[in-house]
């Protein structure tokens, strides 16, 4: 299965979906993109796999998915999720320092640090948040002068609002480790810390104390893809980060990322990212 990766092809990348619903079979498989993404659940239930963690989705939940973070939503067939989604490029967010104690990307940085991507809103806060979303929808529907700029300004308001909420909620969730409610989360964490090793279906099933067949079925239900594809994607994303942050030779990066050979690394990287490792490094180092 080919990886799905959305790219910023526009000089003004911003997109908004208001109160959309999808059948489970129409959801994208595990994927990532160059945009940040804010998802608000209006109604319905399901699960949401983000990075190495599986969350429940319920009314009033907000998920903030930073760019280049793998994720996959699984709405329940008998209670489909209705959600609004804001996609926006990091380049659109105002980063000029005005107050040294705050920036609009504060919430994104905090979420990346703690790896906890969910904020649950009280009924009162849901009303406030839904007003933001309704205002974006109104601006984009009426298409008055500067409507997209207005929508982006409201997105800044949303980021400020979530930043204020996150100080208490994310810190508490991180301390209590509420995200370890699913037995699969330990498997995701093990994979993340052992990508260089020889990870097999039988090894993971043994660690989870389930049969290989049961493990394979549950894993695909959660992530939307099989174990081999998932491992290749995780190793590719790790290599992508190393290509950007280090000057290590490509062969060494292939080894650090867990690929069994440099040719396999080149084939897999090009399949998922759309360019060679050297080509990606050249592009990001400009």
Estimated share of beta-strand residues: 15-25%
Q: What is the domain tally? A: 2
The main sheet orders its strands as: 2-9-4-7-10
**CATH topological fold name of the largest domain:** Jelly Rolls
Q: What would the average pLDDT be, to the nearest integer?
A: 84
| Terminal residue distance | 31 Å
Q: If classified by CATH, what would the architecture of the largest domain be?
A: Sandwich
- Major sheet attributes: 5 strands, antiparallel
In short:
GO terms for molecular function: DNA-binding transcription factor activity; sequence-specific DNA binding. With 286 residues, the chain is of the alpha+beta class.
Can you describe this structure?
By secondary structure, the chain is of the alpha+beta class. It has two domains: 176 residues, Regulatory protein AraC (Jelly Rolls, Sandwich), CATH 2.60.120; 102 residues, Orthogonal Bundle (Arc Repressor Mutant, subunit A), CATH 1.10.10.60. The chain is 48% helix and 17% strand. It has ten helices and ten strands. The strands form three sheets. Strands 2-9-4-7-10 form a five-stranded antiparallel beta sheet, with helices on one face. Strand 5 and strand 6 form a beta hairpin. Helix 7 crosses helix 9. The longest helix has 30 residues. It is globular and about 55 Å long. The protein starts with a strand and ends with a helix. 31% of the residues are buried. The N terminus is likely disordered.
């Amino acid at each position: 299965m080919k990886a799905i990766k959305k790219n910023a092809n526009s000089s003004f990348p911003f997109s908004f979906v208001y109160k959309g619903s999808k059948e489970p079979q129409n959801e994208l498989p595990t994927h990532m993109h160059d945009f940040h993404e804010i998802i608000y659940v209006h109604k319905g239930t399901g699960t949401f796999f983000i990075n190495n963690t599986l969350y429940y989705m319920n009314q009033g939940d907000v998920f903030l998915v930073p760019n280049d973070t793998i994720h996959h939503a699984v709405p329940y067939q008998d209670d489909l999720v209705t959600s609004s989604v804001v996609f926006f490029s990091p380049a659109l967010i105002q980063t000029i320092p005005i107050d040294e104690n705050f920036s609009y990307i504060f919430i994104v940085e905090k979420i990346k640090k703690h790896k906890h991507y969910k904020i649950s809103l009280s009924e009162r806060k849901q009303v406030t948040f839904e007003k933001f979303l309704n205002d974006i929808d109104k601006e984009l529907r009426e298409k008055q002068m500067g409507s997209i700029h207005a929508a982006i300004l409201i997105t800044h308001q949303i980021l400020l609002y979530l930043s204020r909420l996150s100080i208490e909620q994310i810190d508490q969730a991180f301390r209590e480790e509420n995200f370890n409610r699913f037995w699969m989360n330990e498997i995701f964490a093990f994979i993340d810390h052992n990508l260089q090793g020889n990870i097999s279906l039988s090894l993971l099933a043994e660690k989870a104390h389930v049969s290989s067949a049961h493990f394979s079925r549950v894993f695909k239900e959660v992530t939307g893809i099989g174990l081999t594809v998932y491992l290749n994607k995780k190793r590719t994303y790790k290599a992508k980060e190393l290509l950007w942050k280090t000057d290590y030779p490509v062969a060494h990066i292939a080894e650090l990322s867990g690929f069994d050979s440099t040719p396999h690394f080149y084939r897999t990287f090009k399949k998922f990212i759309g360019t060679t490792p050297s080509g990606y490094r050249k592009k990001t180092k400009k």
